[in-house]
Amino acid sequence: MQYLSVRVLRRNIWRCLSFEEGRFPLCDEYGQLISGWTMAEMDDEKETRWLAWLRAPIDTDQHLLEFELTALALSTGIIDAVSFPKFHCFVSNQTGNTVLFAVTAFSPFGTRQDTNFTAPAAHLAVSLGFFCLGVFTPGQTSSYLGCRSKKWWLLLTNAVQTAFVLIAALINLVNRTPNYETDDLNSATILCSIGLLAFASGAQVAMSRQLGMPEIPTTQATAAYVDLFVDPNFFAAVTGNRSRNRRIAFLLTLVVGSFVGAPAYHYVSTAFAILLAGIIKIIVALSFLLNRSNSTRILASGS
User: Whole-prediction pTM value?
Assistant: First the structure.
């Protein structure tokens, strides 16, 4: 290793002080001038690195992504624990809404058992329609732009989802209606809340599917139950079956979310329960800033 003499150091200091204003010199170890960077060039370099960081696809094999998607399942459990008793439909589980359409269609003709449960057709239509729109719009947009797993797209789509959930919470806070109220079924407050939450759920499902982690769909539990129990490696060691571990974590967090959302809705309010789900989505959206890029993983594995 070579050390600079006092004379060379003095020469470098003199060049830095007397160099052209706004330009920073780049000298070699002997004090000879190589080149200089202007402030604009340095800013361009920083901007280029920032844009490259945003455009880089995230590493879909990291444990942080598993945590983020299971946290979104927790949010889903809270919201559906509110939507069914309050809105008389699901905003995430569209299998139930599809079946309830038939029940609603034949309800005027009577049923063998009289029940007090009603599933308004308007609620089902809004939920199913906005859910499909929430899947279609970001799903097709990300495919067209080729940005399915890029950081800027994940940050943007999560920000939109979170905003929709928070707006729904605000609507229910401003226009509060009693829990289990049946006289205000088709009000603008109810229908807007259903539409916002269903769109956010659809966009969330589209995002999780495009990240290539089907074991954590964040909403539908039926496929996860089936895939879990037909897994030929179900009895493998804890570290020997990552797909099974993901499904178990997803199902547990979905159940926990339901047990959190139900008392929050029953004992506090609809707005409070939806706000809890929104806070979880905020945390997840911010955590996407910490996700490792795919190129970083390749470099790390190569070294």
Answer: 0.78
